[in-house]
Amino acid sequence: MDVGSINARLGQAASADSRALDRVCEDLAAELIDANLEPPFHIPSADFATDAWLICADRYWRRRFLREPTVEVAARCARWLHEHTEPPARRDIIERWSLGYAFITRDSVESRHDLTLATGRIVETTQGSADICFFVTLFHAGKLRANFWFDELAWFLESSLLAVAAGEHREDPLFTALRAYAALGSRSIPTSTALDLLERAWSAPRSRAVVDVCLNALAAAPPFPDRGGQLHRRAADAVAAFPGDHVFWFRLACGQRLCGDYADALASIDTALRLLPAIGTRISHDLLQEQYLRERAGIQQRQELAASIAPQQARAQRLAVRSLELLVVFAVAIVFVVGALRVTLTGTLSFRDRALLLTVLDAGLLLFAFLLLAGIWTLGRREKPRSARPSPPLRQ
After folding, report:
1. Residue 147 gets which letter from DSSP?
2. Is there a contact between 19 and 279 (Cβ–Cβ < 8 Å)?
3. Distance between alpha carbon 364 and the CA centroid of its chain, in Å?
4. What is the C-alpha to C-alpha distance for residues 198 and 183, in angstroms, rounded to an integer?
């Protein structure tokens, strides 16, 4: 396979429709893997939708990682990427590849011992390149993130030799966002500390990957005050900045659900499903579609539950108001009775007037008791739930 023929095939594919482009890139990536060759071409841009050379390289490294899901392959990928891209396009590709390949290989996390041994070899062969170590750090951190290993991720980013070797990249917003993710999920790190890290990452110039990790951190965190509100507000900002991104619409739906905005949440998750591309690697598509459909079902269940509970809550409120009204009337009656008795027993009325007053009082009390019982009976009848009434038979 020579560079000329590869470039010719990719050039022809670049002018084809998206499905044909995807097929050619997949076939060529498979041929490079079988020939044990790394892509011999240069990547001109960071356009994952139309750049045939980038798509082909992406397919190649995806296959390579699925076959060898190790940090040493990540180091090899990082070196190739620095040799075959220009700096303006490199950052977006680094973030997308490192975290994306971590997600598809999340079932193969290397142990601390194996990681330490591999780090020594990587630092030696790359002459301690901070750029390459940063890519590898993101790759391993992405695996821990995908598996929700919050405390292990916190340790790795703070103390591992690989993360330390990333040097100045430790101040990168994506590195900080991953630290926030680990802190928010951990039960041993104060929420205030985690939110400070999240705000630092969010306030920096935000790439798509930084926004994704920040929103993922809020979605994966245990409950804390205003968690749903924070996810809702930040996801709304993300959707405004990236209106065609299905992941951010999914996060917005989650935030709206946590806030009880079920109608808006259902609309958002439907948008996420509509934007989810139906081409490309089917594994990721199927996983995301399944996740989105579960969220949609959960939103619908909560919406139906809220709709069924609302009338009961309204009836309970009316019952409480009516009961309070009856208690007030009863208290007034007691005050009246006590006052009347005091006048009758200690006043200066004649015996005949006292007897007449007691008769009127007894009649009033009987009437009040009758009205009170009638009110309670009528209230119970009105507030009787409909479910207690016999249901009509189902039609066959």
Report:
1. T
2. yes
3. 64
4. 9
Q: Which of residues 207, 222, 237 is at a domain's end?
A: 222
Give the whole-angstrom CA distance, residue 55 versus residue 16: 14
Return the pLDDT at 285: 79
Same domain, 27 and 137: no
Rounded Cα–Cα distance for residues 388 and 380 (Å): 12
Q: Is it the case that residue 123 has pLDDT exceeding 80?
A: yes
Phi, psi of 316 (to 5 degrees): -65, -40
* pTM > 0.90: yes or no: no
- Dist. CA 105–CA 86, nearest whole Å: 27
**Residue 388 above 50 pLDDT?**
no
User: What are the C-alpha distances in Å from 219 to residues 9, 97, 210, 303?
Assistant: 43, 22, 14, 20
Number of domains making up the chain: 3
Q: What is the mean pLDDT of residues 29-40?
A: 95
The label of the residue with tokens 């892509």 reads: 39
Domain range enclosing 355: 315-379
159: left (phi over 0), alpha (psi -120 to 50) or beta: alpha
Q: Are residues 47 and 142 in the same domain?
A: no
Burial class (CB in 10 A: 0-12, 13-18, 19+), 86: exposed
> Are 49 and 119 in a shared domain?
no
Q: Kindly report, residue by residue over 222-259, the tens digit of the pLDDT.
A: 999 999 999 999 999 999 999 999 999 999 999 999 99
Token couple for 174: 């994506």
